[in-house]
Batch of 4 targets.
Target 1
Amino acid sequence: MLSSSPTRTATPSRDVQTMPIGLGTTALRSRTWERLKFEIEYSLQKGTTANSYLVRGAEAIALIDPPGETFTEQFLKALAVQVGDRAIDYLILGHLNPNRYATLVHLLDRYPKATVVCSNPAARSLETLLGDRAAKPTIRIVKGEDTLDLGDGHRLQFVPIPTPRWPDGLATFDPASGILFSDKFYGAHVCGDQVFDEGWQIYAGDRRFYFDSLHAAQVNQAIAALDKLDGFAATEIAPNHGPIVRYGLTELRGLYRTWAQQQASQTQTVALLYASAYGNTAAVAQAIASGITKAGVAVNSLNCEHASAEEIQTAIAACDGFIIGSPTLGGHAPTQVQTALGLIISTAAKTKPAGVFGSFGWSGEAIDLLESKLKDAGYSFGMDTIRVKFAPTAATLKTCEEAGTDFAQKIKRSSKRRAAQPAAVTGTADRTAQAVGRVVGALCVVTAQREDVETAMLASWVSQATFNPPGLTVAVAKERAIELLLNEGDQFVLNILPEGSDLWKQFVKNYAPGQDRFEGVETQQAANGARILTGAIAYLECTVKQRMECGDHWLTYAVASQGSVLDGDRVTALHHRKSGSHY
């Protein structure tokens, strides 16, 4: 049975798996079964692989995408076995960050004659990181349609695919093997022994989550990148993370298009502007953007370090609200952020809600500057200012995501108020909604916990689905805070409420991001870590087996592993509605 869940037998927590994947090409997959970083994209906790690729030609050898420093030692040993006495001639960087630079330094020490091949933004970053290093490598900056001939038909073709998160993005196509090295596109954070995507459907949820986490908030640039990547007749796609795409290649390309178009078609947009010195501010921006997009509002992300003044002004003029974030460097906001702030104040209407966030090491003056300048300019805030000291934790990122969702919902409510109220509807649609509203569901509270994050929601769209195994379905609105904790493999508790109890009122409130949903409620901990409400008449401990996207909700199918009736003398509370168009 194929499974997308991480496999842990006698395998160490980190290793490097090697396998030939095409003509003259070997994959070196640096694997971890642990959560690699506290970022939204890793929150499914299925581990990940940092994929590197070795392409051998008759005249030269190229290494594409060395892994981060947590894999350096194991990776260098595995690489030495593959290369032997030959030297690496080219080090090709799909993108560069300080974490990857640590491994790159070791490679340059081992192969001092190697040429670094990268985009212009990556070259600038590399020059900064190299600093006063005595032995500096030869750097070859490539642009669109540039090629590199390794021999034996391996004439590598390069295409820049910049995005706000990775402005230095670079894809590589090898016509000899038919492999497209796609950097941050078409990947998934899942770790296992499978190198290719046999039974590719099992990765559907992981790939969708990866797209939503990384690309939904930069969809305009993602579509531009897809337009370029679709120009290559690849037989395999080799991403930075997860299995190599061979068997579901056509389907995945189509899904990326569909997901991107869904985001691009949203009628309301938030402009998200930021700069990030060490990746922390970018991680916060990613979490906020995730919350906005799940609420059905598009995000136009702009990296202030690379966006032009015209791009920023256009985004601000077209948006329904804006959020700006900054690190604090030497007690100040970077010049690019200050420039963007000036453009906002001179361009954005005062009716557009604003938001501010940032990360800092000690003081956080940049965040205070952004907040005070916008207040003084007369803008109202659609979210509380977010201040993150050092690297964000899982709980911090969840709070940021909820803040993004709240910001988006305020924009949607404001838009509804501005729209003219339609006349009373008495047609077929209204009669259908009334009939749907007569479908009755048990009133329940779903509780979930992961790491130091826990939350809950009131649910009435609950139904038994299977006898064997004992399974049920729960419909979860996409903008719910708990949605992120109800992916395949996650566990939760379904608390079934009694008739006549007021316990449901605790979970129908509007909570601030990160606010404790369980304050004042008597609970106990279930075996799976989630909360059991002692005021419930029964509970079930469940594991999510499948999710299906259904319009504005996710339909979650889960199997109950155990449960108990806490009060056999009372009956289940039911949720009666007059209309099926709202809760």
Target 2
Amino acid sequence: MPTGKLIATLTALCALVGFALHPAPGTDLVLRRVTTFHNNLSRQGANTDELVLRPSNVNPATFGKLFSQPVDGFVYAQPLFLTNVYIPKKGVHNVVFVATEHDSVYAFDADTNAGENSRPLWKTSFLDPAQGTTTASSNDVGCGDIVPEVGITGTPVIDAAGRTLYVVAKTRERGRFVQRLHALDVETGAEKAGSPVEIKAAVRGTGIAAHGERVTFDPLREHQRAGLLLQNGLVYVAWASHCDNPPYHGWVVAYDMRSLRQAGIWNATPDGQMGGIWQSGAAPAGDGEHAFISTGNGDFDADRGGRDFGDSIVQLSRPQMGALQVTDYFTPFDQASLNAGDIEPGSGGTVLISVLGGRKHYVVNVSKSGTIYIVDPAEMGRFNPESNRAIVQSIPAATGGVWGTPAWWNETLYVAGSYDRLKAFRFDSASGRLAEAPASHSSISFMYPGPTPSVSSNGRREGIVWLVQADAYVDDGSAVLRAFDARDLSRELYSSLQAPARDDPGRAVKFSVPTVVNGKVYVAARDRISVYGLLR
């Protein structure tokens, strides 16, 4: 055997032996991993393998903050989690991964900060101030939405089998703005072969800021807010803008996960403008074949044979000949007035749900107007200027405006709108529709932006709805972690306000999504990641 292969084999054997002798903490539990935004490709936000956290033990007497770890910037990305990761010279760990606006990615021990685990297992920075590489500032992008710097906003995605974390970082390099897709080794944080790649894209079009008949990706104007999607060997990355500052377009670009070769491009408004893919941080949803996104604002002319898809829910094909194609779409009948009033569907993430024992599949989106749209992915309805009757269901004003992503569990949709309560809408198998009135709701209301709920359960039992309330982000105040009984949302099980000195998560960041896995809850804030669990 060649020397190199022998060394690699011995290293792998040592890692396996090390795991056998020193299993990671918590390996007696059912192990889960969270490798993508809202837990899965469907973006349902449910962890149905949670055996530790139950409604009976999630209360301030038995549950609370265990520890926090400091980080170097705001955290908009959802924390990700892997079990049993071999870290060279540090053994096997359950690991939580955190990405910051200071263009850093951290790997922390997910279970303890004692001893050597008081420091990151590894940290990777994409900055080099000595060489003129820094983050972009809020002044650079002309927007105070994210301050004081813009680095990593979109939630990364992990290929667990390939031990690779994919993340997009924005940098300022001697006055030039650059965005790159990085592929990092989850064990070391090192760049994989061929990584990173600079993001460049252009499509045929006559839209805003076109040069000749080409519209070109602008790394300064385009904001990589949405999480990343990994599907069919491709990494999908989506963009919107900073504060609606023109010129900009919505973009989706797909890359081969192994070579990082660019595989396909789609522009939401190639002959117009805007059409950004914000989704309040939600990643595109995937059904294993297609990608689903919602666009906000912008021009729409697809009903007249055009190529502009503002204010729409769009189904994209796999790349063909370097392009992602629209295979179907839905645009509300009142798109023009929604666009004028800035109350379009693109503010929230799209969720794919299954009903009737998996015999039917639907696409769900909730808009800034609080309308719940339910669409059949096999026939999405396109555009009807008179009404939304071509889709499965439309429930106007079902909730306050949504800047987040609903959760789906036990054929129930959990939605938390701005200036409204957390609500549970149940699917009625007899009518084949979602109930228009909530089955239960929380006693408290949320201000802007409203939270993204997630659910933990033991199968179909012991459901808990978790969320991070970020109302106080405008005043530099603290976030609040809350937990509700999924069967009856009027029953709040836990709030970090019940033991504020012990359980404060840190200063709030809007669009924050808790990660609930392996008996713990991970909450990111402006300068830290906090870990909650059962108190010893």
Target 3
Amino acid sequence: MNVVTAEQMREIDRVAIADKGVRGADLMESAGRAVAEAAAAMSEPAAVILLLCGPGNNGGDGYVAARLLAQSGYAVHVVPVPNADGLSGDAKAAFDKLPKDKVRLHALGQPAELWNLVTGADLIVDALLGTGSKLPLRAPLDWIVRLVNDARVPVLSVDLPTGLSADTGEGDPVIRAARTVTLGLPKIGMLSPRGVQTCGQVRVERIGLPSDLLDDPAIGRRTMTIADAAALLPARPIDGHKGTFGTVALCAGSACFPGAAALSGLGALRSGVGLVRMHVPGSVRLAVAAQVPEATFHLAGGDARGELVPLAYSEWDSLLLDPDAVVFGPGVTMGDGPHAFLVHLLDCYKGPTLIDADGLNLLAAHRDIASALHSKVVLTPHPGEMARLLRRTTDQVQKNRWESAAEAAKRLNCTVVFKGWGTLIATPENGVVHIPTGNTALSRGGTGDLLAGMIGGLLAQGLDPAPAAYLGAFVVGMAADLAVRQSSARGLLVREIAERIPEAFRELEALKKP
């Protein structure tokens, strides 16, 4: 599903009306009907519903909903904000259609008067501002938002909660909605941490907008759905064997970080790959093998510090001739040995390759290596690593996550998985995809290693870099979501998240079309 900026949504509306013959009044009627249906689903038959309606089309959607709710027998109260005098166009037409005998209209008045209305309602419909919000909010909107939040009455927001920026997800104050009916497509700001906290349960309504406009790939931003993820599952033929499902080679670990190698191996094994071949320094081989006994081991070299060092050419041949994908980086450190190892790997192997952790830091520190990157490479930076790759501060890349992901993919000519809240996956050609799964259980060391192994295993099963990244990130996040249903995100271990990966796959398999 595409995700849009406020300007992109306005342009879709404009083209639909100007070029596609869609009537604005019909869009408003459809939007209001969707809001009324959502409000009814949140209310008892005799509920009191208060609608706060702004001066634009968002308010017009609210007036349509008010009319339909009143006709269905609800006790409907409407407050035009600041008043109804400035209404025009479709919004004024919607206001004029209100059944005055069934809808109680109230002037805005003073805060104490609105407080009595708000606290006397069973549900509040926030139809104050849509994507055209100008922030920060000014009076009376700022105090209305605070008053509504203080009342703790359930709120249904139209399009997005008032006060939330459609583009950045910033805003203060912002209405805290229990549910949001967003119109046409979700907005970028709704996927931010503040957006998720304030939108509540989100329902997307296309309201009759043409599908070719809503589904246009030129929009450049999408969010994954569970159906999208299910469609990416690689085939598992009934007569398959370990050779059928691919071999992934993991170049990982050091004396300081043997656990990173083990967790990346665990992620690969949980991906459904046929064979996991570990290439770790000899000093940590037994420790890693004890954690992932299903893997096989190629005894890579190691120096006195327990770091990977370049292999003899005969060993390189053994490493690179038959794997279907290679993962480099989890736990390798930034020593001279890992540096030389990565240079030779990129020079010798042109198949699917994932680079993680200190492999990314080596790329950032030695810019000459980046010239060897190619379209089959996947990079998996966290915010600090992304900042180093782009030579920015962590705060800069975090404030512009979508733009940072897109820039890194184009500059480095490969697929980039920008980890963090709302993981973003960018490719040079296909824009940025948002991964909606995951929670704070993933906010601990080792989850990135698990993800690296998972994506590497999917690459080895034949998925192209972008689909492997989409599916891998979605499944690991989904496993974390499944885990917190029965536990607290605070205490979950990475291997406990890994244990839920098969359950996540099972849910996706149930949705996959034959």
Target 4
Amino acid sequence: MKKSPLAVLTATAAVLLFLYLFVYEGIWVWIVENTDVPPNKMVILVAKTGKAMPAGQIIAGPGEKGVLLEPLGTGRHFINPFLFERQLREQVLVGPGELGVVINKNGTDLPPGEFLAQPGQRGIQREVLLPGTYKLNPYAYEIRTVKMTEIEPGHVGVIAARSGKATQNQLAEPGERGVQKTVLQPGLYVLNPEAYSVESIEVGFNQITMAHGGKLPETQTTGQTELNREKKAPSGSLNASQTQSGVPVLPAVRFPSSDGFEITIDVTLLWQLLPQDAPSVVSRYGNIRKIEGNILIPQINSTARIKGSTFGAVNFIVGDKREEFQRAFQETIETTLKEKKLQVDLALVQDTLVPDDISGPIQDSRIAAEWNITNTEKTKTEAKKAQLDESMGKIAQIEQVVEFETQRLEGNLVAEQEKQVNQIGAEARLKVAELASETAIMRANTNRKIGSAEAKVLELKGKAEGDGYALQVQAAGSAADYNALQFAKQLPERIRLSLIYAGSGTLWTDLDKASQLAPLELLKQVKQVELAPKK
């Protein structure tokens, strides 16, 4: 049975779809072309087809055969191996505190007289890479990792630009070639070392020590005692490699005196370079090492020779001349170096060495003079001691007199105090007696007044009671009525009376018992009332 064209086309389409999905997408793309780039890696592609690159060109352009400029970064990529070669490389890593200097191997040539390249130009790039990870084709770029410029505390950085237009002054402005006017303060700086050179200059105190080494030869002496000489180091001269307390020690300064003797002095120089003067000083003399070697040390030697040659050997041992030399040496050093913008804080001559044939006799004479002075002082001391003993005796005698006088004054003072105390006591007792007398008088007057008041009260009370009785009698009608009323008030509520019949019209009570209860007069009055004829 012959199939229809539609069925053939459908079957063909299904086969092609199967081949595309299974063979191309499933096998070719995901197995053959699949390129997995791990972290911090990159893939450099090299085109296998295309036209050849021009002579001298290292990076292929569009449609050219060769290394492509842009690498592929971390991730999954699908690359036809028949068209491109795949090269796995490390990405460029710039660590903390570092920077990357980029050298472009591909690009246009630099302008005449210029050695730093701009983007797209071949050569050392002016811009540097900061800390981080970069995908830079190693065929096109060379990366050199260097430390950042660090200026430590106590230092400043003097910058010298290596590119730019020429300056017309000693110090260059920004964009000009030469030592810049501004300095770098302590810290980290991102500066291309190919574009700038930085000199770290210490701006604190710097010290130069020039001294002889240990014990001097027999022909010379320090003018000190033999004991101090034995404490010095073994014989031998110091050189610049030896140090004292970490400070390099240079050979001592030597010069002839005015009378032809060789004088050796130990010198310590403290100096400093101010930050604002660092660019001009560095541009003129160089770094600290050059300043010390070419300026300071020669200046110390020349000043010592010039000033020291005007003094005799003896002047360096005794007298005011030695101080005069120290003063002249200090002032000359300060003035000369100040003109060079170097500040001197101290130029000290620590020790002076002269030959023994000069210092020996002088030392002996000084010792003899010192002994004379000592003996004189001893004599004066004995005299002072005798005066002191005499004074101490006088002081003891005066102390006894003072003690006796003190006791006498103390006795007089005690007697006077007792007298005053007795007088005060007597006055106090007299005052108390006077107060007692006044109190007695006041108390008598009080009692008299109280007696008079009490008598007056009794008088008024009696009068009031009499007036009260008179009013009561008047109210009762008569004295007899008042008495009867009072008698009736005194009788009990229930009284027993015995009545005795004495005849017709006569009624008597028990007179014997009644006599115990009321006065007879009152009974009579009652009887009269009872016997009175009734109306």
